[in-house]
Specification:
Blueprint (H helix, E strand, L loop, with lengths): L8 H10 L10 H13 L3 E4 L5 E5 L11 E6 L21 E4 L2 E4 L6 H15 L8 E6 L7 H5 L9 E4 L7 E3 L4 E10 L2 E2 L6 E8 L4 E2 L11 H15 L3 E7 L5 E2 L3 E7 L4 H18 L8 E6 L6 E2 L1 H13 L3 E5 L7 E12 L3 E10 L2 H18 L2 E8 L9 H14 L4 E3 L7 H7 L4 E4 L4 E2 L7 E3 H17 L2
Parallel strand pairs: 3-6, 3-7, 7-23, 8-22
Antiparallel strand pairs: 1-2, 2-6, 4-5, 5-25, 9-20, 9-21, 10-17, 11-15, 11-16, 12-14, 13-15, 18-19, 19-20, 24-25
């Protein structure tokens, strides 16, 4: 165990233990079973549903029996991203953790501190024997990163608490009191293939070297989206001479800004020089555009092996049009909270199948109305190019509530402990708090957590010292709930 000499020991012990269990979205059964066995071994009432959600009840400490329950909540799954060249099977391999100064990282992959650190804190709270606290209801959900399916399907009648501390935030000293709504969009273009005919010069167009990031928390940083950049390259090249597409692929998760994308294309041999020239003219412009936000941007055009089938002209045109016009990035900013994104969309994944090209996006909005505006743009574009668009896994917004009683208590405790006020804000990312509030009216909710940087990327890192401070603060806050 590499973390045995670091504090908080039990929190980091549990984090290291669950890091040995693959737990990408949709693959949470093993980690859910592990934690259920752990909780039952403590003699605690533990409920596990068919979605692998967990609810664990811990009785109040002596002297707190008459207090209302407090819900502590996080999610079991993690985003699975890795660097090019990293050999890692997210369905089978444990994460390779290491310490770099104050930071905990994983070799070549996401760390899963989002939201494994919440799981670890909850496990440490469940086993603690000397901690003073009211009745605790620990809720650990599945599938949060892929659409919040666990929380959406959780039987809320299992919960008696109407105060909830969500541990899925990533900035110490910031209390979150609101979040965006979200949805998953599946945009499908018909793929009709034909013989290459005169299109017999083949190329691989690749975009890589981007930072990527969280599609909610990092969208305002204007980092490059590899799929959008690919679309712009294709558009300019197709303007110079007709480009036929064979396949496109890019991105790994709908809620992560894609770092890499590629297309296999075909052109007429007589047009090869035009295509090369168009690429050589636009590539420097793209480098200039992203020189601050994404200085590592790398674009290449290289010869590819011949194939027997290419997309028809109309299919290729419709695909390129879609990649250029699908909403991506910030749509508008909040007029209530300075610097907060009010609406955005992220083109997260593109895949080529035998009869369709599927593009997965995630629009977000500070309200459902903001989200619907972006969705209408996607629907209108789909109608223009003959695509189908469907909207699934909707999560409601969590309206900003700066007057929360729970928030006031936590803020007062923070000021006593640190001599300064915490930051109170809403975020553009999605949190399950909106679902709990929507299904359980009157729920008083605050989200908090330690410093985690570059979520949803292989550069993800967790501050160990921040984890210690947040853990101590959480324990003190529970002790005050009397």
């Amino acid at each position: 165990m590499i973390l045995s000499n670091y504090e908080p020991k039990r929190v980091l012990h549990h984090f290291e233990a669950i890091s040995q269990i693959p737990r990408g979205s949709g693959n949470e059964k093993a980690v859910s079973d592990y934690i259920a066995a752990f909780a039952k071994g403590l003699g605690l009432t533990t409920l596990q549903d068919e979605y692998h959600n967990l609810v664990v009840y811990k009785p109040a400490a002596p002297g707190y029996e008459g207090q209302p329950p407090i819900i502590l909540q996080g999610h079991l799954d993690m985003v699975c991203e890795k660097n090019t060249g990293t050999t890692h099977d997210f369905l089978a391999d444990p994460l390779k953790l290491y310490v770099d100064g104050d930071y905990l990282k994983a070799e070549g992959t996401t760390l899963g501190a989002d939201n494994g650190i919440a799981v670890a804190m909850c496990m440490a709270l469940l086993e603690a024997t000397s901690l003073a606290h009211p009745p605790i209801e620990v809720v650990l959900t599945s599938d949060e990163e892929a659409g919040m399916g666990g929380a959406l399907n959780l039987d809320m009648n299992l919960l008696k608490g109407r105060r909830l501390i969500n541990l899925d935030s990533s900035t110490e000293g910031t209390f979150v009191a609101g979040c965006a709504s979200g949805a998953t969009v599946e945009y499908e273009l018909p793929a009709i293939f034909e013989n290459p005919a005169g299109f017999t010069q083949f190329y691989k167009l690749a975009v890589k070297g981007l930072v990527g990031g969280h599609s909610g928390g990092d969208i305002h940083l204007e980092r490059g989206n590899a799929i959008r950049i690919l679309g712009n390259l294709l558009y300019v090249m197709d303007t110079a001479a007709e480009v036929r597409i064979i396949s496109v692929a890019g991105g790994m998760k709908v809620n992560a800004i894609p770092r890499e994308a590629e297309a296999i294309i075909a052109v007429k041999p007589a047009d090869s020089d035009k295509i090369q020239k168009a690429f050589e003219e636009i590539a420097p412009d793209m480098k200039i555009f992203f020189r601050v936000a994404d200085p590592g941007l790398d674009m290449t055009l290289a010869a590819a092996e011949p194939v027997e089938k290419i997309l028809t002209g109309p299919c290729s045109k419709n695909l390129i049009t879609s990649l250029v016009l699908l909403p991506n990035g910030v749509e508008c900013m909040s007029r209530e909270i300075e610097g907060l994104v009010a609406a955005s969309s992220n083109i997260g994944v593109i895949e080529t199948f035998a009869d369709t090209i599927k593009i997965s996006s995630m629009p977000r909005g500070k309200s459902n109305a903001h989200n619907y505006q972006t969705e209408r743009k996607i629907s209108a574009l789909a109608e223009l190019v003959g695509a189908k668009s469907s909207f699934t896994q909707r999560s409601p917004a969590w309206p900003f509530n700066p007057k929360s009683d729970l928030l006031a208590m936590l803020a007062a405790r923070y000021k006593v402990k640190y001599g300064k006020d915490p930051k109170i804000t809403a975020i553009h990312g999605g949190l399950e708090c909106g679902i709990f509030g929507d299904k359980l009216p009157g729920m008083d909710t605050v989200s908090m957590g330690p410093d985690i940087h570059d979520l949803h990327t292989p550069d993800e890192r967790l501050s160990i010292s921040s984890t210690q401070r947040v853990w101590e603060f959480l324990c003190e806050a529970l002790r005050e709930m009397k």
